[in-house]
Amino acid sequence: MVVMAAKKACEMLSKSMLVEVQRWGCMKQTGVSLRYMMEFGSVPTERNLLISAQFLHKELPIRIARRAIELETLPYGLSEKPAVLKVRDWYLDSFRDMVSFPEIKGTNNEKEFTQMIKAIKVRHNNVVPMMALGVQQLKKGLGPKIVYEDLDEIHQFLDRFYMSRIGIRMLIGQHVELHNPNPPPHCVGYIHTKMSPLEVAQNASEDARAICLQEYGSAPAVNIYGDPNFTFPYVPTHLQLMVFELVKNSLRAVQERYMDSDRVSPPVRIIVADGIEDVTIKVSDEGGGIARSGLPKIFTYLYSTAKNPLDEDCDLGTGEAVTMAGYGYGLPISRLYARYFGGDLQIISMEGYGTDAYLHLSRLGDSQEPLP
Asked: What residue stretches are annotated with the Histidine kinase domain (predicted)?
């Protein structure tokens, strides 16, 4: 009897909850530009932190609700897969936390709110591999008959979903970081106002080479060209992630191509160019390139043969290991990071020779966040 009552209460709760999610999901999202985040955060007074918290208190539930609604209505039964249900529950929990939080009126409120959104960010740490696991569960069920081009809808959903996640995490991270009493020099939250792309490329390359060494026992050299004194405002963690991914792919291609050869493997080259509108980073390798027919596939979430760190056999909480192959999401997600602040990522390949990746970063910082 008690169990029945509890079940009934739970159903009622989820019903009223879903009505609430629908209501918030219909509201208009508000985008923020890199420049605005930088100017607003450069004086993190109590008043500014309060305004920021009040904005997030209204904005985040709208963004979270939209994703929760989409998670309910995915094609091919993806919504019913255990991993996707888990992600949906994280979003619903976070939505509940946000809307049940009282109006933010003073500094104490604001501090509690900041702790809460910090916890929300941690709750969603594993969303990407967990969704990848859901897609894997779906592919297993569909069998080899399915034409992956038909899964375009799922690809577009994942693009929207991950782009929105980048925005939510940027807004939370930026707000939390503005509370840092001793910010590093030239840093406004997550944004470095004098970031050296050369230095970030250097660090990302060293990280990628370390993984290559670990996996293959050797790694091609990485040569970096550009003005070491050039800086511009950007989010170093985003750039690190993108360059790391591109260099890692290049190292892997070169390493595999020259593994059994007597010749010394050619270096991967990184060129940083500062234009008026864009800063462009080119990553060039002589790793044999990609067939033209394969190029459209490199930006999809559905082709990777690599093992997911959260695969069935693993514990769902601990997918921390990075491998050279990743789980096939590196390129599409890097492109979303580039587009988030108005940039882009393009891959040009010469089959039989190598690949050039062009990472364009908007220098002006004026573009609004894309709001899927």
From this structure: 236-365
Identify the residue with better confidence: 137 or 83: 83
How far, in Å, CA of 334 to CA of 316, rounded? 24
Helices (H), 224-275: 236-258
- Give the pLDDT of residue 285: 98
Give the model's pLDDT for residue 320: 45
Cα 202 from Cα 336, distance rounded (Å) = 22
Q: pLDDT band for 15, please (50, 70, 90 cuts).
A: confident
Buried-exposed string 311-329: b where 16+ CB fall within 10 A, e elsewhere: eeeeeeeebeebebebbbb
- Give, in degrees to the nearest 5, the angle at Cα 26 between 335 and 190: 40
Q: Is 105 exposed, middle or buried (0-12, 13-18, 19+ CB in 10 A)?
A: exposed
Report whether 49 contacts 120 (CB < 8 A): no
Kindly state the tokens that stand for 79.
């919504």
What is the model's pTM?
0.89
Partners of 313 in the β-ladder: none
pLDDT digits (tens, 9 = 90+) for 63-76: 999 999 999 989 88
Give the 3-state secondary structure of residue 309. coil
Cβ atoms of residues 363 and 232 within 8 Å: yes
Strands (E), 39-183: none
Closest CA to 329 of 358, 347, 309: 309
251's CB contacts (< 8 A; 6+ apart) are 208, 209, 212, 219, 220, 222, 268, 285, 324
CB atoms within 10 A of CB 106: 9
User: For residue 357, what is the enclosing H or E element?
Assistant: strand 354-362
What is the C-alpha separation between 211 and 218, in angstroms, rounded? 10
3-state secondary structure of 136: helix
Nearest to residue 233, comparing CAs of 269, 261, 271, 274?
274
List Cα–Cα distances, 174 to 13, 52, 57, 260, in angstroms.
33, 10, 14, 47
Rounded to whole angstroms, the Cα distance separating 83 from 125 reads 14
Please report, as a single letter, which amino acid is at residue 43: V
Strands 187-188 and 222-225, by their bridges, are unpaired
Entry field: residues in the chain: 372
Pairing of strands 344-350, 278-285: unpaired
Of 197, 263, 202, whose CA–CA distance to 231 is shortest?
197
